[in-house]
Amino acid sequence: MSVKKIAILFSGNGSNLENILKKVHNKTFNGTTIKCELLICNKKDAFGIQRAKKYGLETVIIEHKNFNSREEFDEKLVNLIKQKDIDLTILAGFMRILTPVFTKNVKAINLHPSILPLFKGANAIKESFESDMLVGGVSVHFVSEELDGGKLINQLVFYRKKGMSLDEWEENIHALEYEILPKTIIELLAFSN
Ligand code: GRF
What's the EC number here (predicted)? Predict the structure, then answer.
């Protein structure tokens, strides 16, 4: 049996973080046990920190505002991830643009609430809702230097119902996020060689 270590980076609410802890952490898939070895948050008041405590996990808080540059902040992240010998890093609601210092040194995946390459950036849910699109969806992709631009790994979509509200649109997106992210982590760590 093998063990694969993950790191999760988040910035706020942490519902995707909790979903991963619930469905993936300390569980075995196809002979591989996946362990969450590192949690990093760049906001000291993020609710996700409390969610992680329920699972007995402490979060390392690294506030980007204490660094002189994006590169210095990224270097700190990379050092922590390397120290723990992490196999896969997951950005789950981590709201920071990462530089090549991070992207060239860490194998990471990101969850994004739209059908990429459409609606990149921080307002994807609202922008996709306000578009003419008849489908919405979510994407998981490898993290590259281009914001929300790395190679796609998985996507899930839903149909727009007539008269759908923004809240309903968002609910659909979150429901798919809770499906796609654990599935992708398991696929990458336990079902590919
Ligand atoms: C999710 O919609 C994710 O796609 C986006 O940020 C949100 C994070 O939500 N990048 P949560 O913190 O996991 O609840």
Answer: 2.1.2.2
DSSP designation for 118: S
Q: Can you tell me the distance from the alpha carbon of 13 to that of 173, in angstroms, rounded to the nearest whole number?
A: 15
User: What residue owns the CA closest to ligand 1's atom 3?
Assistant: 93
Q: Does the annotation list 15 as a binding residue?
A: yes
C-alpha dihedral, 168 to 171 to 173 to 177, nearest 10°? -170
Ligand 1 atom closest to Cα of residue 174: 2
3-class state of residue 167 by DSSP:
helix
Nearest CA to ligand 1 atom 2: 113
Indicate the pTM of the whole model: 0.96
Which two structure tokens, joined as six digits, stand for 28? 């075995």
Q: Enumerate the active-site residues.
A: 112
Count of CB atoms within 10 A of residue 64's CB? Answer: 17
Confidence of residue 1 (pLDDT cuts 50, 70, 90): confident
Type and span of the H or E element at 29? strand 27-29
